Amino acid sequence: MSNFLTNQQIASLVEAIQSAEEHSTGEIRVHIDSNTEGDNAKIAFKVFEELCLNKTKEKNAVLFHVNFEQKYLTIIGDTGIHEKVHQSYWDHLHDYITSEFAKGNYYKALKSAILETGLELKKYFPVTGKNHNELPNEITFS
């Protein structure tokens, strides 16, 4: 699992993902990487391709790829999101999360980021009709 989050916190983050996705067709994934020694950005994109890329009808999946040991965070959105959400939004969110990580607030930062992302996705990808959960909500690990 993770030395930075308790099992209870991980379960709570899964609930936050469910809640964040409730009013949007967007999908949010969180991957915690404890293995990468090399190029985190390259690994993050590989994980994004496996978990998210082109797996949603509106290409609106977001991945939070976290490597606590290396204090590294990558946020990647599929093409549908990039057409609507400006880079400045993601930069601001990234800065907030990493500043909270620096204080040891891993759980608080991830939960806030998930819920905030849900609000942003709701603006551009509101639910109309039935909201299908296109991707699993569980947190993945490597």
From TrEMBL:
InterPro entries: TPM_dom. Signal peptide: none annotated. Residues 3-115 form the TPM domain. PANTHER family: BLL7265 PROTEIN (PTHR30373:SF8), UPF0603 PROTEIN YGCG (PTHR30373). This is Membrane protein.
